[in-house]
Amino acid sequence: MPDVLVIGGGPAGMAAARAARESGATVTLLESGDDLGGQYWRHLPAQRSDPDEGKWHHGWQRFLDLRAALVADPGCEVVTTAHVWSVDRRDGRPPLVHALVGPPDGGDRTPRTFDPDALVLATGAQERTLPFPGWDLPGVFTAGAAQALAKGERVAVGRRVLVAGAGPFLLTAVASLVRVGAQVVGVVEAADAKRLAKGWATKPWRLAKASHKATELVGYLRVLAANRVPYRTGSAVVAAHGTDRVEAVTVARLTPDWSPVPGTERRIEVDAVCVSHAFVPRTELAISTGCALTEDGSVQVDDRQRTTVPGVLTAGELTGIGGVDLALAEGRIAGAVAAGAEPDARDVKRRAVFREFATRLAAAHGVRPGWRSWVDDDTVVCRCEDVTAGALRSAAELTCSKGLRSLKLTTRAGLGLCQGRTCGRAVEDLLTGVLDPGRTANRPIAAPLRLGELAEHGRTCNREDVP
Amino acid sequence: MSKIRIEVDGRPVEAVAGQSIAAALLAAGRTSWRRTRAGRPRGVFCGIGTCFDCVVTVNDLRDVRACQRRAADGDRVETQEDDRA
Ligand code: FES
């Protein structure tokens, strides 16, 4: 009976764990939060649960069923508050996985090491926010933060809020913001109407099987209408203003390339702005494991969700941004294959349907290079270390440095607390052509840990003894 | 919904059991609680634990992400400034 380890307790990881169990494997499911669900099914904690929780989510019953099945199953160990911080590669088999179990950033968490026969990575995605002047002012949030605070806390990030960026996720954030009582003064979508039509309305029959997505979308548009929220396409927030917090933003019309059209700027008073330009897979663990990435930075998989590392599979946003239905289908396939079984033909079919959806998403809302002109020399790019775009550019020019590492060491970009998680892609993009290609997501420690915890790990885990 | 009380820079702040420290601070009307090396104010940005903008000191332990840590009754929270080089 193979031992399958699944990392990530969102839709993809939960589906993978369940499918692996149904195919006869024993399963351990690691989740960093204190409950399953991931960002998608983020909900109030047990201490203050809401009987109407279902109203906040799509597919809530599906979550409840999955969670109940996993938690009640003696062949599945669910470990919550498990922070995986490193993996040890091994030839021809999945890596050893090291986790700390306990409160986030705590000082005395319990170390655990896992030695699985098969590993499913389902670590999801994070938002990519393009920098613009003032984006580091308090009151500028990612749309995901607005969503997490609304769904997981019932807190509104502001009273007068503008939502801006690209993609349907903006609309889901609006729905949550309205529920917690925020006034949404507008939604600003960077893709223009022409590109949206081309991305979404070409060969519509190919989307027919994903029609519940259209129903969801109509639901969101109703929320906009009912709350009189103006929706503007082909525009972006190109600056945020204020001294200690955001007080207003500048919205400009964009060319199809996302460059601001001069003279179209409008100032809008707000006390919060939520931005979301794209999602990027959280690939730290996949990279540490040695999985090859595709050109767009997602993990390369075959038609059975296998990565280039033997015994390591992946599902969900790690393989490309595609949403919950794709994550669930991929998770089920990865779980079955990890357990040594054949994937269910229905899941394979579903995967094809929702991959089409993912392709549309990228075609309609994908980031365009003109955003770089929003950034002036004084714009902070690396938020942790206060490194500006000007400093980055001049360091690259003055030192004739083409290496990402030396540029990081000269400017300190990407060397702060977040280790380049927030600025990495922007740094890479701003210096395209100047810099040798490389990925900032390559970091040996996947999650922060205390030196004391590391020392403890060194004492308890003599590497020579490890298989 | 049970109330708890935490201390932020020596002042009492009411929170709800299960609330994250970040949510408790936002609900109490604060949008920033940290300064970077250059003195720029920071609060919540990503809300999911990736940006580290929201770190605070909790019960003498530095660099705890306020958006990830649930507030516990009696927690002593202190806002942080990055060390100025
Ligand atoms: S707000 Fe980004 S880590 Fe807490």
TrEMBL record, chain A:
Residues 3-330 form the FAD/NAD(P)-binding domain. Keywords: Oxidoreductase. Residues 380-431 form the BFD-like [2Fe-2S]-binding domain. CDD domains: GlpA-like_Fer2_BFD-like (cd19946). InterPro entries: BFD-like_2Fe2S-bd_dom, BFD-like_2Fe2S-bd_dom_sf, FAD/NAD-bd_sf, FAD/NAD-binding_dom, Metab_Enz_Cyan_OpOx_G3PDH, Opine_Oxase_asu/HCN_bsu. Gene3D superfamilies: BFD-like [2Fe-2S]-binding domain, FAD/NAD(P)-binding domain. GO terms for molecular function: oxidoreductase activity. PANTHER family: ANAEROBIC GLYCEROL-3-PHOSPHATE DEHYDROGENASE SUBUNIT B. This is FAD-dependent pyridine nucleotide-disulphide oxidoreductase. It comes from Actinosynnema mirum (strain ATCC 29888 / DSM 43827 / JCM 3225 / NBRC 14064 / NCIMB 13271 / NRRL B-12336 / IMRU 3971 / 101).
From TrEMBL, chain B:
Keywords: Oxidoreductase. One of its GO terms (molecular function) is oxidoreductase activity. It comes from the Bacteria. The keyword Oxidoreductase applies. InterPro entries: 2Fe-2S-bd_N (IPR042204), 2Fe-2S_ferredoxin-like_sf (IPR036010). The keyword Oxidoreductase applies. Pfam families: Fer2_4 (PF13510). This is FAD dependent oxidoreductase. It comes from Actinosynnema mirum (strain ATCC 29888 / DSM 43827 / JCM 3225 / NBRC 14064 / NCIMB 13271 / NRRL B-12336 / IMRU 3971 / 101).
